[in-house]
């Protein structure tokens, strides 16, 4: 029964990222029995002295199965130089290109079905990574709460002999597993399972046949203590092997929780014998370690005490508290595990971290903590005592007080709390680096890096020379030769050198293709040194005697020096002569410097110290003539000729040299006849050492320019002048630059203007010609009309006054206008024009308008009219009866025909009988009748008791342009004749016409 998922695993993705972005080295395991004799153990190995490591340009990888559900698969790729590459899965038709920027991790997302989900089946899911420059590749298999990553190992360090390392089943999730991928076609892999798995009995080999791009996985789900750790895997060609567990509880099933674990395993030839361990900070009960053997009869000791004897493929698991040592008499693989959280109830999570043997330590590392999710981070160090106080973290020396000795191992341990981000560590000697961190229910850990040199196959080391002597101050070198069991050279492994005695020092170097590593040092003190070369558990020694008061050492070197101005040269053949005791007096040369004459000179150097001891050496000083001769050419020559050629003559050039010269030769000898033109004459000389010099000068065979003129006609400008050139293609026959000057110079007045053109070349020779410039006026006058005018009509029209102006470039002109100024213009718009012409017949004209308008209404004068007697009869009325005068400013006197009655009012009612005032009113209706535009009938009656009736006639008078004057006049019926003109208007009582407003119309009595 699978436990609750939250208790099974709480792996953090950020922890996995930490492993991916750093040099995490995958756990691997040694073989338990020698590989089958029919198969040769192969390993791709460089023949240079460089140490093999986890960076490369080609990788074959795979993903073993994670715990349930669909995983997220990714590759993370980083490099020290910018490069490009590709990731392909041939069996899934997947391909993705990538580019790498130094210091930046590139992510390539893979399809989820690239994971091997089956057991005991070959699948076409191997992953191929190629790059143009070396990169590091990390794989991430991500499912929430069960995630792990591995460091990819390049194909150039792939091997053919492996032992699987993983973790046993503990009856929580049973899934111990491993897998491998082929790096070449036609690969046969022999698997000898450690426990019975599926159809494969324990200890019985079976073969798996793989082609390039194919991968295989075997998973065991049996009950505890089933463990595929110790399974032997050998192959006919190099493969990539991965070991781990589907979801492991560490250290046992009673500790929560489980996590998927996976590592790519190195081949057994890289395993070592000597390890130092540093406990994980904050953990209270120690850490779990697994130690795996590669060879039968391997004795394993912890802190110097034997704890197990292992055969090939057997593993010893134990808890170690505090810093300690692990040693073995034969190669083993060691992994350190962080125990589950409930092991000591400390905030943590399981992880697995390889512990490199100190023979695989490096001298510099670049590591990185996760950028988020882990606030507490540590770096553990395991350093040789000689490096303590000199190791730097991010450029700052780590104080020696932070280190604690690991027993009598010669190594010290330190636990450093570090900030989030990348860190650089360097030291004078190789040391171990382990990076890890914790968060709530989460953790990560990995070794900062390691070499992968084949230290496991080393069986002997010899140091030469065994003895010797030299004077102090010199350098002494020893060479360690490293071989395997067949006496073959082993390259790429680190040899440590230690010198004790008169001159104590230490160092290391890597073996080259001949299996040799050289170490050199300078003796500064007299006495005997003991020199030891060590690799793993093997060592050899030598001795060397340093002698004081040594004679000087004369060192010579041949010199080649250039002759000076007198064909001599100073030179020293001393090439670093010295005295080992530092008491050199000086060195002399015989013969002394300088050395005269081109060629070799044999010279002896003799050096003497304060004790009178001497040493000599001889070398050759070769004087060379590196100085070219000198040569001076005459000044440039100008040869004028009226013809097309001339004889070229010039003074001879002058030549000289520090060691002697030969003659002078020139490209055109003096006295040669040459046609018109410019000639660059080059003269050269050489000395006996083939140094040359040259100079040059110019000779110009010259003819004057040809001045060519022609008459021209030009138009006068705004100032009545013209500008023009009479030059009609003047030339210089020998191609000289020349200028032409015209006299007199422009501008020229109207008419004919004679001029002379003189052309002069760059050498001062000239010719002239003459012609005429005819300046003509082609520009018409510029005329400006007055603006358009609008005038008020007076007496049937208006008089307009205006002025036009005109200018000309050559004449004074007066414009004329039609009609002329002062003319009377009729009502309406009249067009007018003005024109002007100059003395050359050029003319111009313009136009404008005069508009006469009438905006004033007529002026009307009226008088009153009296009707008598009041006989109740109609009296005919015409507007002319009350018009005194009608005058218009434009039209003059206006007739009555232009008048129009609008309304007529009465200040008495039409019939006043109803009011009782009808006496004299006549009791009549229709007292007002409008008979025409300007006529009406008005009844002559008034009330008897009133003051007379007043009619008011309202009318409009309109002129010819439609201007209207509205006016009125009174027509009255007086009460009596005592005052015949008295009929005051008492207000409107009766109105006929338009615009009556509130005044009533016909009387009510007249409606019966």
What do these coordinates show?
This protein is an all-beta fold and about 1000 residues long. The protein is built from two helices and 77 strands. Strands 6, 9, 10, 11, 12, 13, 14 and 15 form an eight-stranded antiparallel sheet that branches. The chain starts with a helix and ends in a 15-residue tail after the last strand.
Question: Notable features of this structure?
Answer:
48% strand, 1008 residues, disordered N terminus, 8-stranded antiparallel β-sheet, mainly beta, 2 helices
SSE order and pairing:
Layout: H1 5-8, H2 13-20, E1 56-61, E2 72-79, E3 83-89, E4 94-100, E5 106-110, E6 121-123, E7 127-142, E8 148-151, E9 159-163, E10 176-182, E11 187-192, E12 206-210, E13 215-220, E14 232-248, E15 259-265, E16 272-277, E17 287-293, E18 298-302, E19 305-310, E20 315-320, E21 324-338, E22 351-354, E23 362-368, E24 376-384, E25 392-393, E26 396-397, E27 404-405, E28 411-418, E29 422-439, E30 442-447, E31 460-464, E32 469-471, E33 475-483, E34 494-501, E35 505-510, E36 516-522, E37 527-535, E38 538-547, E39 559-562, E40 568-569, E41 584-590, E42 595-596, E43 599-609, E44 614-624, E45 630-632, E46 637-640, E47 645-648, E48 654-656, E49 665-666, E50 672-675, E51 677-686, E52 692-702, E53 712-715, E54 721-722, E55 738-743, E56 748-749, E57 751-761, E58 766-776, E59 782-784, E60 789-792, E61 798-799, E62 805-807, E63 816-818, E64 824-825, E65 828-837, E66 843-853, E67 859-862, E68 865-866, E69 874-878, E70 883-888, E71 892-893, E72 899-906, E73 928-932, E74 935-939, E75 949-958, E76 964-973, E77 990-993
Parallel strand pairs: 32-38, 39-44, 46-52, 53-58, 60-66, 68-76
Antiparallel strand pairs: 1-7, 2-5, 2-7, 3-4, 3-7, 6-13, 7-8, 9-14, 10-13, 10-14, 11-12, 11-14, 14-15, 16-21, 17-20, 17-21, 18-19, 18-21, 21-22, 23-29, 24-28, 24-29, 25-26, 25-29, 27-28, 29-30, 31-33, 33-36, 34-35, 34-37, 37-38, 40-42, 41-43, 43-44, 45-48, 47-50, 49-51, 51-52, 54-56, 55-57, ...
């Amino acid at each position: 029964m699978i436990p609750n998922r939250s208790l099974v695993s709480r792996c953090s993705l950020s922890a996995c990222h930490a492993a991916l972005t750093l040099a995490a080295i995958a756990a691997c395991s040694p073989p338990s029995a020698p590989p089958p004799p029919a198969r040769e153990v192969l390993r791709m190995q460089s023949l240079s002295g460089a140490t093999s490591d986890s960076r490369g340009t080609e990788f074959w990888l795979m993903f073993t199965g994670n715990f349930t559900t669909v995983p997220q698969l990714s590759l993370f790729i980083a490099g020290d130089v910018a490069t490009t590459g590709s990731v392909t899965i041939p069996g899934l038709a997947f391909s993705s290109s990538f580019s790498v920027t130094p210091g930046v991790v590139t992510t390539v997302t893979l399809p989820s079905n690239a994971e091997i989900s089956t057991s005991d089946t070959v699948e076409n899911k191997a992953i191929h990574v190629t790059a143009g420059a070396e990169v590091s590749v990390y794989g991430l298999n991500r499912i929430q709460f069960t995630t792990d990553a591995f460091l990819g190992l390049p194909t150039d360090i792939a091997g053919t002999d492996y032992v699987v390392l993983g973790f046993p089943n503990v009856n929580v999730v049973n899934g111990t597993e491993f897998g491998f991928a082929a790096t070449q076609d036609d690969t046969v892999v022999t698997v000898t399972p450690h426990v019975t798995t599926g159809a494969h009995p324990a200890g019985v080999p079976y073969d798996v046949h793989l082609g390039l791009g194919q991968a295989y996985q075997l998973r065991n789900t049996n009950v505890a203590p089933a463990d595929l750790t110790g399974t032997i895997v050998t192959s006919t060609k190099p493969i990539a092997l991965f070991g781990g567990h589907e979801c492991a509880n560490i250290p046992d099933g009673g500790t929560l929780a489980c996590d998927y674990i996976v590592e790519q395993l190195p081949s057994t030839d890289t395993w070592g014998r000597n390890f130092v361990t540093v406990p994980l900070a904050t953990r209270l009960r120690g850490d779990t370690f697994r130690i795996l053997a590669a060879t039968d009869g391997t004795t394993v000791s912890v802190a110097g005490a034997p704890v197990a004897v292992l055969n090939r493929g057997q593993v010893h698991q134990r808890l170690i508290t505090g810093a300690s040592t692990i040693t073995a008499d034969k190669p083993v693989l060691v992994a350190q595990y962080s125990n589950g959280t409930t092991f000591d109830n400390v905030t943590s999570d399981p992880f697995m971290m390889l512990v490199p043997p100190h023979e695989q330590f490096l001298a510099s590392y670049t590591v990185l903590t996760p950028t988020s999710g882990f606030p507490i981070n540590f770096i553990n160090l395991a350093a040789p005592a000689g490096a303590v106080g000199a190791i730097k973290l991010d450029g700052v020396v780590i104080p020696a007080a932070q280190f604690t000795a690991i027993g009598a191992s010669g190594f010290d341990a330190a636990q450093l709390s570090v900030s989030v981000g990348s860190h650089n560590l360097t030291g004078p000697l190789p040391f171990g680096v382990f990076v890890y961190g914790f968060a709530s229910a989460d953790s990560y850990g990995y070794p900062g890096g390691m070499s992968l040199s084949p230290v496991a196959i080393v069986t002997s080391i010899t140091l030469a020379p065994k003895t010797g002597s030299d004077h102090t101050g010199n350098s002494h070198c020893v060479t360690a030769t490293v071989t395997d069991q067949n006496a073959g050279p082993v390259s790429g492994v680190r040899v440590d050198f230690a010198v004790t005695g008169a001159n104590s020092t230490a160092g290391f170097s890597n073996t080259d293709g001949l299996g040799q590593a050289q170490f050199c040092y300078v003796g500064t003190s007299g006495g005997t040194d003991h020199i030891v070369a060590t690799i793993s558990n093997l060592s050899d020694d030598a001795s060397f005697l340093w002698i004081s008061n040594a004679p000087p050492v004369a060192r010579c070197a041949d010199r080649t020096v250039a002759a000076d101005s007198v064909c001599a040269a100073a030179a020293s053949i001393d090439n670093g002569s010295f005295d080992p005791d530092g008491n050199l007096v000086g060195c002399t040369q015989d013969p002394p410097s300088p050395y005269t004459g081109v060629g070799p000179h044999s010279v002896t150097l003799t050096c003497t110290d304060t004790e009178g001891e001497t040493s000599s050496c001889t070398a050759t000083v070769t004087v060379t003539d590196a100085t070219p001769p000198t040569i001076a050419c005459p000044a440039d020559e100008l040869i004028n000729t009226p013809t097309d050629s001339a004889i070229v003559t010039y003074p001879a050039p002058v030549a000289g040299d520090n060691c002697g010269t030969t003659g002078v030769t020139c490209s055109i000898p003096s006295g040669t006849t040459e046609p018109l033109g410019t000639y660059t004459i080059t003269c050269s000389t050489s000395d006996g050492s083939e140094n040359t010099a040259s100079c040059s000068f110019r000779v110009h065979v010259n003819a004057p320019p040809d001045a060519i003129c022609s008459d021209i006609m030009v138009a006068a400008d705004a100032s009545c002048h013209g500008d023009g050139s009479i030059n009609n293609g003047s030339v210089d026959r020998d191609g000289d630059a020349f200028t032409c000057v015209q006299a007199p110079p422009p501008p020229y007045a109207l008419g004919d203007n004679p001029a002379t053109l003189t052309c002069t070349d760059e050498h001062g020779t000239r010719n002239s010609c003459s012609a005429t410039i005819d300046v003509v006026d082609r520009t018409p006058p510029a005329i400006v009309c007055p603006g358009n005018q609008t005038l008020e009509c007076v007496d049937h029209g208006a008089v307009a006054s205006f002025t036009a102006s005109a200018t000309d470039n050559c004449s004074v002109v007066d414009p004329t206008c039609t009609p002329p100024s002062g003319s009377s213009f009729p009502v309406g718009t009249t067009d007018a024009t003005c024109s002007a012409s100059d003395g050359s017949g050029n003319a111009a004209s313009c136009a404008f308008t005069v508009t006469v308008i009438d905006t004033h209404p007529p002026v009307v004068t009226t008088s009153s009219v009296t009707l008598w007697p009041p006989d109740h009869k109609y009296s005919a009325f015409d507007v002319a009866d009350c018009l005194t005068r009608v005058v218009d400013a434009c039209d003059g006197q206006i007739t009555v025909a232009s008048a129009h009655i609008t309304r007529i009012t009465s200040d008495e009612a039409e019939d006043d009988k109803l009011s009782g005032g009808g006496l004299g009113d006549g009791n009549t209706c229709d007292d007002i009748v409008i008979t025409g535009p300007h006529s009406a009938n008005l009844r002559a009656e008034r009330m008897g008791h009133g003051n007379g009736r007043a009619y008011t006639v309202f009318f409009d008078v309109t002129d010819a342009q439609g201007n209207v004057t509205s006016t009125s006049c009174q027509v009255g019926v007086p009460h009596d004749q005592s005052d015949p003109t008295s009929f005051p208007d008492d207000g409107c009582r009766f109105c006929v016409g338009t615009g009556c407003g509130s005044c009533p119309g016909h009387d009510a009595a007249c409606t019966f």
